[in-house]
Structures are given as C-alpha cells and as structure tokens.
Amino acid sequence: MQAAKCVFWLPTILTHLNKTIEATQKLIEQKVFAFAGNVGTPTSKAALPLLERHKIPAVGFFTGAGLLRPGKGDILNFRASYVQETKAVITKALQHGIPATGICAYVQNDAYGMAGVVGIRDALQEAKSDPNTLKTLDDIIAMEGDEPARNGKGPVGVYTRNTFIARDGYDSLKSWESLQNTRCQLVVTVGTYEAIARFIAYAHSNEEPWIFSAVSFTGADSFLKTLSQFNITDRVIMTQVVPLPDSDLPIVQEARQALGKDYGYVSQEGYIVGKLLLHGLRKLETDGKPLTRENFLATIKGQSFELNGFNMDFSNDNQGSDLVVMTTLSQEKWLTMPDSAWRGWIKPSNTKTN
C-alpha cells in the first residue's frame, strides 16, 4: 500500500460556517480520501452535506451530536453521544435522591446545546417525570432559527455561542425556580470551557448550592485551568468518553508515551481516532484489497474489534464506543467520581420537593 494514495486532513473549527464550507470544498477538490477529527457540531453540520454528496467518509468527528448518529452519508463515530453523557449524570443524580424537578440545564443556544437538552429529556422521561415539564423541554428543543428565544421558557438557560454572558441564562433558571416553586440542584451544562466556567463562577457569586456537570467536549484541561482561575474547587462533574489516564489499557499507555506533555483527555481521543483509521487501512493491506473508500468502510462498518485493548463495536450502529466515565473536580484535578461524592453534596433537605 502506497501512503501517497491516501491523504487525511484534520480541519479544526472555523469562526464562520461559510469558511467551513469553503475549506471543505477546497479539500474535496484536492481529492482527499477522508475527513477525520473535525471539531464541533455547527461546523460538522455545515460540512456533512458536502461529504455526503461526494461520498467521502467522515471519521471520528469531535462531537457527540445526534446529527451524526446515524446521520447522512458515510459517518463513523468513535465517541459516545452528548445524549449518553448527560443521561449518565442525570440517571446517577436521580438514583442518589435529586428529584426530577431539581434537574436544570445551562447550554449553548444551538444544536450542540440542544443535544444535551435531549439527553435531559430522555432521562426524565425514563424517570416518569411531570408530563408538563417534558412538554416544555420538547418545545424548547423544537424551536427553530438562529438564536431562538429559549430563555424564560423552562428549566433551561442558554447563552449565545462565542459569548460569555451568563446572567440571562442564570436569570432563566431563577425564573423557573420561582414559577415552579422548586429549585435547581443539578445544572447540566453543555458549552465551551470559558462560557461554562464563567457561568459556574457567576452562580457561585450568588451563593447557589448547585451541582454542575459538563460534557467531554467542554475540554477537561482548559476547563480545569479556567475553573481554577475562578477559585472553583468542587461540586463539578465532568463526563469523559475515553479511558482515564490511570487505565492499564495498552492504548492509553501508548498514547501517554507518544503524546508526552501534550497528553490529555482530548488528545487521547484524537489518538484513538488515529488508531481507528490505521486499523482500517492495515486491514486492507493484510487482506490484499485495493485502497478504496468502499473497502475502507467495509473494514469497520458492522464489525467488532479491539484497538490495543480498547473495544470497538460497530455491529449495531455507526458508533464504536459507548463509554462514559464520570469524573469530579478534586484536588485540582479530575478524579474518578465515587458514589460517596453524591452523598456528601446532597443534604437530606435537598431531596424534598414542594
């Protein structure tokens, strides 16, 4: 197999969606073999129709959005979805005594944020939550257009992408508490590290006793650094979709050695996506099959295999891993979250509903 026959480009998130389309089109004209590791939900949404039209595989995009699950075109996801991440936290919260009325959200006002709200809605539906609350969440999710007015509609506060103003979203949650004679106890966040950290700091300045959770895309290392700048030291949960750094899996040890000082949760994900690409290419070489997109996809779609000890299962869908690990901020690092943390955070009086 000649390496020159296969070119992989790793375009990162761009400021404007029209630039995403322009850059994607330019790469397509250069006849690239596949796109891998693209970052973000809005940019993926802009690029995917072009990739579908030209039958170019989209591999391991750095987003857990539903528009790629299954999505249109040849899409191979590595990571668990945002729905799975938010649902995992809420399910645990409900099990440890937080009532459904205590689940709220602060999210980016776009498809990325709404993916998290879908996870909240699914978890609350399973818990047989109040039908009116579920209807409210459905209405918020269904709102269309750029920057729809989602604040003040339910247990959700939103902020505008690429901004850091937390007050409007915070006021939305306080309005919900007042109107429903309830209180938020777990605030599920879906956004960028700076925006979420500033929101948590703003809530802290108002002495809110809320527990906060963040999804993996928030970026563990940058999020941790920003929280530290605001002196936030506890009551923050972060879900991860890759094995923890202390895992004894060979792929984790390899990544740590290869990445050195650049190793982290995000770079670990990129390393796994790279291994996924190499798995397909090497399988073609071993089987003596021509390097075509169709043959490459066939080495992964419908298959189950290991990547240096890490299980990948594409037998039932286009997502290889369902792994969601909950970590908590402790001792200025992300540590595996024990059940005892919930018991320490939730006081008996907090579990009562009005």
Automatic annotation (TrEMBL):
Domain of life, source organism: Bacteria
Domain Leucine-binding protein: 20-127
Protein name: ABC transporter substrate-binding protein
Family listed: Belongs to the leucine-binding protein family.
Keywords in alphabetical order: Signal
Pfam (any one): Peripla_BP_6
Native source organism of the sequence: Candidatus Thiothrix anitrata
